[in-house]
Write a structure and sequence with these properties.
The protein is mainly α. 90% of the residues lie in helices and 0% in strands. It contains five helices and no strands. The protein has helices spanning 2-59, 61-70, 81-101, 104-114, 119-185. The longest helix has 67 residues, at 119-185.
Length: 186
C-alpha cells in the first residue's frame, strides 16, 4: 500500500510540475499578448485620430467653399489650386502620422489618396479605412477576451490539481502513519 501511495505521490508531483511549467508559459504568453494588445490599441487610437483630422480638413467649410468656387455644374472651369493645397495638407498629415506610428494602413491610405481623383472617393477611402481599423480593434478585443477565458479555465484546472496533490499527500502521510503503527505492533 505504501509503495502504491509513493507511486501516486510521485506521479502527482510530476503532473504538478508539468502544470506549473504550463502555467508559467501561459502567463508569459498572456503578458506578451497583453502588452502587444495595449500597444496596438494605442496605434489604432492614433490612426483613428489622424484619419479624423484628415476628414475634418476635407470636410471643413473652407474646403467646401473652395470646391464650390472651382467646380460649377457644367464643369467648365477647373481650378484645383485651393483643393490641391488642402489635399496636400491632408496627405502630409497622413504620411507623417503613418511614418511616426509605423502604420502601414496610414501610409497606404496616403499613397492611395495621392493618386485619387474626386473628393468623394477620398472621403470614402478614409471612411473605409476607419471602419477597417475599428473592426481590427474589435477583433483584437475579442481575442483578448478569449485569452482571458482560457487563462481562467487553466487556473481552475491548476487549482483542482493542487487540491488533488494536497489530498494525495495527506493520504500518503496517513498511510505512512498506518505503516509505522503496524510495524511497531509487529
Amino acid at each position: 500500500a505504501s509503495a502504491k501511495a509513493q507511486g501516486e505521490l510521485s506521479e502527482t508531483k510530476a503532473a504538478k510540475a508539468d502544470d506549473e511549467a504550463l502555467k508559467s508559459e501561459i502567463e508569459t504568453t498572456f503578458t506578451t499578448k497583453k502588452i502587444t494588445f495595449q500597444e496596438n490599441q494605442k496605434v489604432r487610437a492614433a490612426e483613428i485620430d489622424a484619419i479624423a483630422k484628415a476628414i475634418d480638413i476635407i470636410s471643413s467649410s473652407s474646403v467646401s467653399e473652395k470646391y464650390s468656387q472651382h467646380i460649377n455644374l457644367l464643369q467648365l472651369k477647373r481650378s484645383t489650386s485651393g483643393r490641391a493645397a488642402i489635399k496636400e495638407s491632408a496627405l502630409s498629415l497622413l504620411r507623417s502620422r503613418g511614418t511616426a506610428l509605423q502604420s502601414q494602413a496610414l501610409t497606404s491610405l496616403a499613397a492611395s489618396l495621392a493618386s485619387a481623383g474626386p473628393l468623394d472617393k477620398v472621403i470614402g477611402m478614409i471612411e473605409g479605412l476607419l471602419a477597417k481599423l475599428k473592426e481590427d480593434a474589435a477583433a483584437e478585443a475579442d481575442h483578448k477576451g478569449w485569452c482571458d477565458e482560457q487563462l481562467k479555465a487553466n487556473k481552475l484546472k491548476r487549482d483542482k490539481k493542487t487540491t488533488k496533490v494536497e489530498e494525495l499527500s495527506a493520504s500518503v502521510e496517513s498511510l505512512n502513519a498506518v505503516i509505522q503503527e503496524q510495524a511497531s505492533t509487529i
